[in-house]
Amino acid sequence: MIRIVLAEDQxxxxxxxxxxxxxxxxxxxxxxxGDGEAAWAAVQEHQPDLLVTDIEMPHLTxxxxxxxxxxxxxxxxxxxxxxxxxxxxxxxxxxxxxxxYLLKDAPxxxxxxxxxxxxxxxxxxxxxxxxxxxxxxxPLTERERQVLRLAGEGVKTxxxxxxxxxxxxxxxxxxxxxxGKLGAExxxxxxxxxxxxxxx
Length: 200
Fold this sequence. Notes:
By secondary structure, this protein is α/β, with parallel strands linked by helices. The protein is 52% helix and 14% strand.
C-alpha cells in the first residue's frame, strides 16, 4: 500500500482528489491538509511514502514543503499537482528535490500511474513543462526573490529589512538589482513579471 499525505488549500479539490485516489486499491490517503504548516505536521506524524501537494498554499508553499522534506532527510517523495503551467516553478521544484510535477487537468488515471512510478523511484514531469523549463533562465538570486516577494505583498522597505535582518540600503540594492534584471519600471512590475514566470 502506498501511503499518501494530500495537501491542497481548496477543500473541494482536495476532497475530489482524495476520493479519486481512494478508488485505487494500492493508494491510501492517510492524512489531508489545507495549508502548508498542517501538511508538514502530517508528514512528520505519518511519515508517508508520498506527499502530494499544490504549490500555492497558505503558510508554506509546496516548494517550501519539498525543501523541508529534503533538508530533513525524509524518505517521503514529493509530487506537485498544480494549475500553474510555469516553467520557473518546475525548475525550482526540481531543485527542491520534487519527484513529480503534474497539472491538475491531467486525467486521474495518469495521476495514479504517476504516483506509482514516483513511489517506485522514478520521476514524472508533465512533458510540455519539461520542454519549457529549460528555456528562459531565472535571473534572480534567492535573496532577491525573498525581498521582491515581500515588496510585492506591499511590505515597506524598512519592514523588509527588519524581517530579513538586512540594512535598509541592502534591501534597496536587492530591489534595484531585481528590477534591473527583469527590465521592469518599478518593484510592483518586477514582482508581477517574476510571479507570471514562476520565479517567486
